[in-house]
Every structure is written in C-alpha cells, then in structure tokens.
C-alpha cells in the first residue's frame, strides 16, 4: 500500500509537467491567395453584325457576291500586365467550301452552304496600353503579322513595333489591347442556293483569351 501511495504522486507530477510543455506550444499559419491576372474580351455592338434584308436579285448568279465590309472593335482588358492573346473558333464548322481560314454562315433549307466570312484586322488601329502595335499570329515559336483572323488554331497576340514597317518584336506585358476589324462576308452564287425559301445568314464564332 505504501509503495502504491508513493508511486501515484510521481505519475501525477509527470503528467502535470507534460501538460505544461504542450501548453507552451504555439502555431503560426501563413495564408493568402495569389491571384493570376484575369482578362476579359469584348466586341463592339455586342458582337452582332446584321446585314438586314438582302434582295436575292442583288446576288450574282454564277459567281460569289461580296457584301459590304462591316466594322467591329475587339478589345481585351486585363486586371494587371500580362502576355495575352486570343483564339477564335467557328461555331458553324464545315459550312463553307473554302480551304483557307474562313468562318461558315451555316446552310440553307436544302443543306447548301450559304457562304463565308473572315475578320480583317486594321493594323494601324492597334493599340497596346495606348502604344502603337500590331496583331501577330503565333505558330509554335514563330510570330508573323496577321492579315486575317480565322479559325485556324493559331493564337493571335500583340506585338510592339518601333514603326509601321518595323519587325515584330518581343511580346509585351500589357493590360489593355484594342483594335478594329472589318468583317468581310461572301455569299455563294445564287444558282447554288435554295431561293424557294428565305435564307438566314447564321454565322457564329467564339473569341477566347489565351494566356501566354
């Protein structure tokens, strides 16, 4: 009994000391979130081009008819400077007869392709954070001035220039990019179309930001 009485306080003492050591610990936690730059593309007029009513008699019988070039402005605004570009996807793939970078206008009631369009950038309008620039297309590590914007899998981005005829230089970090484009639309010969019914031009494309 005495041995038991002697041992018990010692055990209690050890437990007390151990508890005191743990009570002296303090944890430090570092938290935070580094947010990447976010960019938002926009297209003037809600991205809508409306040719209104087109008289079928104004269409060429045996050759294509080029409609009036329509202007739009494309801009990309970012929350902080970043190297950024964009791609454009055709939401009506397979509805034109061309081999080049063109967008389709869908089909008529008989399944005939109506025509095509493409975006022609106006290089002199290009501004990168207020500075003159140009639109370049990227194919791997190769950059070249873009004369046409199409659904060709290429990334289109900004490049600073020292003068209009200067070489394409290293891509800049930028917050804002803005430029004008001309929408050039072509209708196929009307002898290839089903004109017994109304034909609705139904082009659709999606512009997506690409972070470089």
From TrEMBL:
Q: Which UniProt keywords apply?
A: Signal
Signal sequence, start to end = 1-23
List the GO cellular component terms: pilus
**Which biological process, per GO, is one annotated for this protein?**
cell adhesion
Concerning InterPro entries, the annotation shows: Adhesion_dom_fimbrial_sf (IPR036937), DUF1120 (IPR010546)
Transmembrane feature ranges: none
Entry keyword Signal: yes
Look up keyword Signal and say if it applies.
yes
State what protein this is by name: DUF1120 domain-containing protein
């Amino acid at each position: 009994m005495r041995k038991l009485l002697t041992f018990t306080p010692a055990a209690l003492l050890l437990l007390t000391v151990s508890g005191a050591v743990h009570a002296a610990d303090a944890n430090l936690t570092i938290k935070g979130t580094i947010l990447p730059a976010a960019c938002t593309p926009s297209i003037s007029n809600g991205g809508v081009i409306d040719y209104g009513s087109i008289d079928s008699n104004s269409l060429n019988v045996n050759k294509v008819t080029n409609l009036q070039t329509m202007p739009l402005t494309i801009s990309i605004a970012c929350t902080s400077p970043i190297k950024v570009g964009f791609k454009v996807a055709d939401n009506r793939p397979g509805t034109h007869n061309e081999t080049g970078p063109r967008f389709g206008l869908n089909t008529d009631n008989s399944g005939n392709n109506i025509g095509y369009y493409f975006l022609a950038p106006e290089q002199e309008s290009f501004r990168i954070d207020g500075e003159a620039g140009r639109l370049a297309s990227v194919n791997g590590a190769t950059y070249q001035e873009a004369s046409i914007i199409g659904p060709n899998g290429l990334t289109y981005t900004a490049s600073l220039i020292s003068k209009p005829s200067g070489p394409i230089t290293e891509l800049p970090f930028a917050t804002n990019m803005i430029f004008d484009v001309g929408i050039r639309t072509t209708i196929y010969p009307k002898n290839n179309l089903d004109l017994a019914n109304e034909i609705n031009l139904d082009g659709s494309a999606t512009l997506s930001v690409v972070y470089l």
